[in-house]
């Protein structure tokens, strides 16, 4: 369900802002407006945010991202366009209704904590509830629950100056959570923190989101933070949104040279996942298939092994061509002719397809991974199998496979991006023998190219 809709929103400061919007629509750029004494902070921004999504807006200083955020809760009025929250046009709400909406349904977490130094941690966390007019006992109870959520249980009576920067930001987050607001707006909320504390706060937010499923718009200038937190990311430049997509979309298909330059130093092995490189499995057999039927599949797909699946592609194991051949051999029996001294010869056993099935021949020890596993986490499981790595869902259904050549190629692309001098990296050394054929018939085209 779509919770937030931003439609062609622009914000122009200075003389004749409406005229500035008209000039922008006619093709004028920000520099031309600046020369005329007008500043275009946000230009024609449009996007939607789904309920329970973390939507990250990323851009350098001056790109307009913080101005955009302040229009999402009515702190700034757009010069043109509109913002809809649960279908209500914020730009058309009376001032009292807008204040009520901000106090109850939309919360903001600031970069510099914004704690009251003369209030205790509990009183700071309860401030939004106080604005709502809740009785003291009720607001303190809710604030204490929020502090427990962010890991500050037991610190209720402390003062802000007794806390570290990370703990102060947790109080700010607890204050936003205490109101049970549906939409959280986070403006560079972790950028003032030391790197280790910042990483810890990112972990905290991810954990809270798993439990609370809030709708979050998160502002940052840090691409790694954006890719770690965002379900989707909007990249801003000079007031305009130049691309919206998942971290994988932005990394693999940048919209222009600006976005490409942004992502060139990103560690792809920690952003791209198994889902981004997995292929459709080819050689598949059923557990009740006869060896002859399994052999036909193996030969048709030019494979030396197959995955064994049942209804809904539930993965049961693997079976090799060698094991199937052995079963077929065992289903042939020697039959001597009646003439003395006649040579022995083999004739097919009439029950050749009535004995063993693939279930009797398969190996159930199958190495698997999940679709959301980053590439950096695939090397270890891939090293434990000669088969393509099986990608399964939570119910054990086979979603795809990753041939060894595909994994090495993806890691090699990352290494090439990091080593412009062309010197081999560890990823390249792993590719020795990468042209070997995968048992399940994958990667043969790549090997012969």
TrEMBL record:
Keywords for this protein: Amino-acid transport, ATP-binding, CBS domain, Nucleotide-binding, Transport
Cross-referenced InterPro entries: AAA+_ATPase (IPR003593), ABC_osmolyte_uptake_ATP-bind (IPR051921), ABC_transporter-like_ATP-bd (IPR003439), ABC_transporter-like_CS (IPR017871), CBS_dom (IPR000644), CBS_dom_sf (IPR046342), Gly-betaine_transp_ATP-bd (IPR005892), P-loop_NTPase (IPR027417)
Example GO molecular function: ATP binding
Pfam families, sorted: ABC_tran, CBS
Region (Disordered): 327-359, 416-449
A single cellular component GO annotation: membrane
Matches recorded under NCBIfam families: proV (TIGR01186)
Protein name: Glycine betaine/proline transport system ATP-binding protein
Record organism: Actinacidiphila alni
């Amino acid at each position: 369900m779509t919770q937030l809709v931003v439609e062609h929103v622009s914000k122009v400061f200075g003389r004749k802002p409406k005229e500035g919007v008209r000039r922008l629509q006619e093709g004028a750029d920000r520099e031309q407006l600046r020369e005329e004494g007008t500043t275009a902070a946000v230009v024609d921004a449009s996007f939607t945010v789904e309920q329970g999504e973390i939507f990250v807006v990323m851009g350098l200083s001056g790109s307009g991202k913080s101005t955009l955020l302040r229009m999402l809760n009515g702190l700034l009025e757009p010069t043109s366009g509109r913002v809809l929250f649960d279908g209500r046009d914020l730009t058309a709400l009376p001032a009292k209704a807008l204040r009520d909406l901000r106090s109850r349904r939309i919360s903001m977490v600031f970069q510099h904590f914004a704690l009251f130094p003369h209030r205790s941690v509990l009183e700071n966390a309860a401030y939004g509830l106080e604005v709502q007019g809740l009785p003291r006992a009720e607001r303190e109870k809710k604030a204490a629950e929020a502090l427990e959520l962010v890991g500050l249980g037991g610190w209720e009576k402390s003062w802000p100056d007794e806390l570290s920067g990370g703990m102060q930001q947790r109080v700010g987050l607890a204050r936003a959570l205490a109101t049970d607001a549906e939409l959280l707006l986070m403006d560079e909320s972790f950028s003032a923190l030391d790197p280790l504390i910042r990483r810890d706060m990112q972990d905290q937010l991810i954990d809270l989101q798993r439990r609370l499923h809030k709708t979050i718009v998160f502002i940052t200038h840090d691409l790694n933070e954006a890719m770690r937190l965002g379900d989707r990311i909007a990249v801003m430049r000079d007031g305009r949104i130049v691309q919206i997509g998942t971290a994988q979309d932005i990394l693999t298909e940048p919209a222009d040279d600006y976005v490409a330059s942004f992502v060139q130093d990103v560690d792809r092995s920690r952003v791209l996942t198994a889902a981004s490189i997995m292929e459709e499995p080819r050689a598949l057999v059923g557990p009740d298939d006869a060896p002859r039927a399994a052999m036909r599949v193996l030969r048709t797909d030019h494979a030396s092994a197959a995955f064994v699946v049942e209804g809904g592609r539930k993965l049961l194991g693997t079976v090799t061509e060698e094991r199937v051949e052995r079963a077929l051999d065992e289903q042939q029996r020697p039959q001597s002719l009646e003439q003395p001294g006649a040579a022995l010869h083999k004739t097919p056993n009439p029950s050749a397809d009535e004995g063993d099935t693939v279930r009797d021949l398969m190996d159930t020890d199958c190495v698997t991974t999940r679709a959301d596993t980053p590439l950096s986490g695939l090397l270890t499981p891939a090293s434990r199998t000669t088969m393509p790595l099986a990608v399964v869902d939570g119910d054990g259904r086979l979603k795809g496979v990753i041939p060894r050549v595909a994994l090495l190629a993806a890691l090699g692309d990352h290494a090439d991006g990091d080593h412009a001098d062309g010197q081999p990296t560890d990823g390249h050394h792993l590719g020795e023998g990468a042209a070997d054929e995968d048992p399940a018939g994958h990667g043969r085209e790549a090997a012969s190219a």
